[in-house]
Specification:
Recoverin, domain 1, 5 helices, binds calcium ion, mainly alpha
Length: 77
């Protein structure tokens, strides 16, 4: 029974680590109002440079909140 509780606690811990805050505000570390590639991969490590460039609709090299929202949706949340 004790082993089961430890396993459950470990699962709960893994679950909270997975549920990372990917909101625009928390991703924008320097609060510049847009996200650089390094800011994006800090919260979404699976995003490639290609995916970042594809989400950058106006091609200015950074993602606005609207562009980031599109990226979040296309990367499956
Ligand atoms: Ca920023
Ligand atoms: Ca942009």
């Amino acid at each position: 029974m004790k082993k089961l509780l430890i396993a459950l606690a470990a699962l709960t811990f893994a679950g909270s680590a997975y549920a990372q805050d990917t909101s625009f505000a928390s991703a924008d570390l320097d609060q510049s109002g847009d996200l650089t590639f390094s800011e994006v991969i800090a919260v979404l490590p699976n995003v490639t440079e290609e995916a970042f460039a594809a989400a950058d609709a106006d091609g200015n090299g950074v993602l606005s909140e609207a562009e980031y929202t599109v990226l979040l949706e296309s990367s499956g949340g």
